[in-house]
């Protein structure tokens, strides 16, 4: 068993390892460190190692063996009482979104507890990475589909892990292009989320305007690499596309215009009384709770937890400039919406600076084979938060294991806690304010 | 209030007026062209580099149902294969998706989607669809959502996505169909009243895509039903999706 523990204040990663007898298990950490719960449940699910004394041990991904969901009872947290009722939603949801099952325990309209059942999207991603003889090109493309809304985030994390395991380095220009792509992805999704949040409170101006702005941003990504989500841009050892000087000018013009548009649209959205009435004090996650359950990303920062991989554990081009950690304190839907608004502006500034760092350097190095017996940790601050890939190679330099951790893995519990004591009709709004990934967790 | 008015003026009119012939960026990877003259010893490299085994040697062809449009083959081919920005690449039969050496886009567009009078009569003015993500990575889902945004505005043609399968005329599948989603997908399909259509969107739904070799899939559903429309891509561009649906329902 390996445990990677980050010391954010000192920018260090500590790795602990121990041999565990699968029969006897080990003493669970969860009662002392709540955020270990999901990790212990996952190890139990994947390796059948029992953390003794775990307060509620069950697999994360239900039906992973392909059992018909309806024939096996999933042990939901339940309440009893004369007027308590349960609301089940999913796996198929109302919109064009990924599947998952939600089970609400309610009294009238009030939600006492929500439990989320994962696993419907399980495609065997980690197993596919570990299959031998997989061509690097295939692995690259597979990493783009870990979560299709985080193409640059996940693919970037993966290619850096592969480069590290193969002792490869990349040029400053490559790092710059990757950074621009990652920040464009962050801006695009944050704009999409502001659009959807506006839509959820029936604020149609916000829904339309932010939606149209998002289109401009993903079309900019497309102008670099031919795909609106950045597919095909990143590769092991470099990037497949450059940003020409003509394109630099176009990107600069786009973000300058975008900055004005976003400021105006944000001003209108965040001063609208009807919007604020729905956003403020809805779905609160306190700072203490956020720390305890190990939240990451903008959702954590909205609750006052100052963590950001870009400054805590800088990677790529972020090693050469500081990223100021932005935090808010209220931890409600408003904070999670507003943090997106300010992060968009921050990302615009990063892109503007980075556009000056491009040169005609080599875009792609020759891919070298992986070194044997490597243990590589690769971290990225994706738009949802901390993405972690841990890559292990075997004696022959093949991928033995790629462990993927999407930020959603840390944050799904936060959503469940945020909706406690809220009206069930506020669930869609709370859900959107986190916008978590199903496929990133189900893998 | 003044800011709101200013914002609306700045926002302007965003909808693409002519969806049927909208301009596409040059860099978009759409319909592939195989150049027979350049079909040479390098072709094996092209076959080998493809991450989804979409390219065959004899005959030289590319299967759009498997292709994820990553462009790796184009880089490896010395010009033997080139992606044009032509985006109307959907087909009503799976076989039609195989683009052979020498195929011409104009001919492909004219024959790939067979217009049916019955479909036009039934759904030509109104088509409501239920989307089911069965292991989709959220890529196809985001592009299907984008079809309804202010830029693409598919609703103007009477084509919409609905929440209940009971309100739907058909089902849109994305994702490689995981074992865990197979029962729910079948339930949703059965809940739609006849006559109903089935549309497969994206490389994963059509062929399994990058997940084709996974042990966690159950694609039996595809043998049980007839797929009426295949929309290839990873993910398909909204213009590809909308034009495919409009061609299928016989909208001019």
Structure characterization notes:
- The complex is a heterodimer of chains A (443) and B (252).
- Chain A is 42% helix and 15% strand.
- Chain A has 15 helices and twelve strands.
- In chain A, the strands form five sheets. In chain A, strands 5-6-7 form a three-stranded antiparallel beta sheet. In chain A, strands 10-11-12 form a three-stranded antiparallel beta sheet.
- In chain A, helix 3 (136-144) runs antiparallel to helix 4, helix 4 (151-165) packs antiparallel against helix 5 (172-200) and helix 5 (172-200) packs antiparallel against helix 12 (333-354).
- The longest helix of chain A is centred in the middle third of the chain and has 29 residues, at 172-200.
- Chain A is globular and about 70 Å long.
- The two termini of chain A are 20 Å apart.
- In chain A, 50% of the residues are buried.
- Chain B has helices at 2-11, 43-49, 72-76, 105-112, 117-123, 139-146, 182-191, 202-207, 221-224, 238-248; strands spanning 32-34, 55-56, 61-63, 81-83, 98-100, 127-133, 159-161, 170-174, 197-201, 229-231.
- In chain B, the strands form three sheets. In chain B, strands 7-6-8-9-10 form a five-stranded parallel beta sheet, sandwiched between helices.
- By secondary structure, chain B is α/β, with parallel strands linked by helices.
- The mean pLDDT of chain B is 92.
- Chain B is globular.
- Chains A and B meet through helix 2, helix 3, helix 6 and helix 7 of A and helix 1, strand 6, helix 6 and helix 7 of B.
> Which pair of protein chains has the largest interface, and what are the residue counts?
A-B, 65 and 66 residues
Characterize the main sheet of chain A.
3 strands, antiparallel
Order of strands, main sheet of chain A, comes to: 5-6-7
Q: Report the portion of residues of chain A in β strands.
A: 5-15%
Ends apart, CA distance between termini of chain B: 41 Å
Would you count the extended β strands of chain A for me?
12
Helix content of chain A: 40-55%
Output the structural class of chain A: alpha+beta
Strand order of the largest sheet of chain B: 7-6-8-9-10
Average pLDDT taken over every residue of chain A: 91
Unreliable segments of 5+ consecutive residues of chain B:
none
Number of helices of chain B: 10
The global form of chain A is globular
Average pLDDT level of chain B: 92
Shape type of chain B: globular
Largest sheet of chain B: 5 strands, parallel
Percent of residues in beta strands of chain B: 5-15%
**What would you call the structural class of chain B?**
alpha/beta
């Amino acid at each position: 068993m390996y445990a990677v523990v980050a010391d954010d204040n000192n920018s260090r990663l500590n790795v602990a390892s121990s041999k565990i007898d699968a029969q006897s298990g080990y003493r669970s950490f969860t009662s002392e460190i709540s955020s270990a719960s999901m990790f212990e449940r996952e190890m139990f699910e994947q390796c059948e190692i029992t953390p003794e004394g775990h307060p509620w041990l069950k697999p994360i991904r239900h039906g992973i063996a392909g059992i018909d969901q309806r024939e096996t009872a999933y042990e939901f947290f339940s309440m009893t009482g004369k007027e308590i009722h349960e609301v089940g939603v999913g796996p198929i949801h109302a919109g064009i979104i990924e599947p998952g099952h939600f089970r609400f325990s309610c009294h009238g309209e009030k939600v006492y507890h929500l439990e989320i059942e994962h696993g419907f999207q399980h495609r065997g991603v980690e197993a596919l990475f570990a299959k031998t003889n997989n061509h690097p090109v295939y692995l690259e493309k597979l990493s783009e589909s870990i979560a299709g809304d985080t193409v640059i985030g996940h693919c970037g994390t993966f290619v850096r892990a592969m480069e590290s395991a193969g002792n490869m380095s990349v040029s400053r220009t490559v790092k710059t292009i990757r950074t621009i792509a990652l920040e464009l992805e962050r801006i695009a999704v944050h704009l999409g989320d502001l659009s959807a949040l506006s839509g959820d409170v029936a604020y149609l101006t916000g829904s339309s305007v932010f939606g149209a702005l998002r289109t401009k941003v993903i079309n900019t990504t497309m102008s670099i690499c031919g795909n609106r989500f950045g597919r095909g841009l990143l590769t092991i050892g470099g990037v497949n596309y450059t940003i020409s000087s003509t394109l630099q000018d176009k990107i600069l013009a786009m973000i300058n215009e975008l900055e004005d548009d976003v400021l105006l649209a944000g001003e209108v959205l965040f001063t609208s009384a009807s919007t604020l009435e729905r956003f403020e004090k809805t779905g609160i996650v306190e700072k203490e709770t956020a720390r305890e359950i190990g939240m990451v990303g903008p959702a954590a920062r909205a609750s006052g937890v100052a963590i950001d991989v870009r400054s805590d554990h800088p990677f790529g081009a972020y090693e050469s400039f500081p990223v100021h950690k932005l935090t808010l304190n209220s931890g409600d839907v408003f904070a999670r919406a507003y943090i997106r608004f300010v992060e968009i502006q921050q990302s615009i500034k990063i892109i503007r600076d980075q556009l000056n760092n491009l040169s005609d350097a080599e875009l792609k190095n020759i891919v070298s084979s992986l070194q044997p017996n490597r243990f590589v940790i690769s971290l990225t601050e994706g738009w949802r938060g901390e993405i972690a890939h841990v890559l292990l190679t075997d004696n022959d330099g093949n991928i033995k294991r790629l462990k993927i951790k999407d930020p959603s893995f840390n944050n799904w519990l936060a959503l469940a806690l945020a909706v406690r004591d809220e009206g069930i009709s506020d669930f869609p709004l709370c859900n959107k304010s986190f916008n978590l990934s199903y496929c990133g967790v189900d893998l | 209030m003044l800011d709101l008015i200013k914002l609306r003026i700045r926002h302007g009119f965003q909808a693409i007026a002519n969806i049927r012939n909208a301009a596409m960026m040059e860099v978009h990877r759409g319909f592939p062209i195989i150049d027979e003259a350049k079909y040479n010893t390098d072709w094996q490299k092209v076959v080998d580099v493809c991450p989804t085994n979409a390219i065959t040697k004899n005959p030289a062809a590319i299967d759009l149902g498997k292709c994820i449009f990553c462009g790796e083959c184009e880089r490896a081919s010395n010009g033997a294969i080139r992606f044009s920005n032509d985006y109307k690449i959907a087909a009503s039969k799976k076989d039609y998706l195989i683009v052979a050496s020498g195929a011409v886009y104009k001919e492909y567009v004219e024959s790939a989607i067979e217009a049916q009078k019955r479909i036009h009569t039934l759904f030509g003015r109104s088509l409501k669809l239920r989307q089911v993500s069965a292991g989709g990575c959220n890529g196809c889902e985001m592009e299907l959502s984008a079809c309804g945004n202010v830029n693409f505005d598919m609703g103007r043609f009477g084509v919409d996505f609905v929440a209940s399968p009971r309100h739907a005329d058909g089902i849109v599948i994305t994702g490689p169909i995981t074992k865990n989603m197979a029962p729910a997908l079948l339930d949703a399909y059965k809940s739609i009243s006849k006559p109903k259509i089935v549309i497969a969107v994206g490389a994963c739904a059509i062929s399994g895509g990058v997940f084709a070799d996974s042990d966690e899939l159950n694609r039996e559903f595809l043998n049980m039903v007839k797929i009426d429309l295949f929309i290839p891509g990873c993910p398909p561009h909204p213009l590809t999706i909308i034009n495919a649906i409009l061609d299928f329902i016989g909208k001019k």
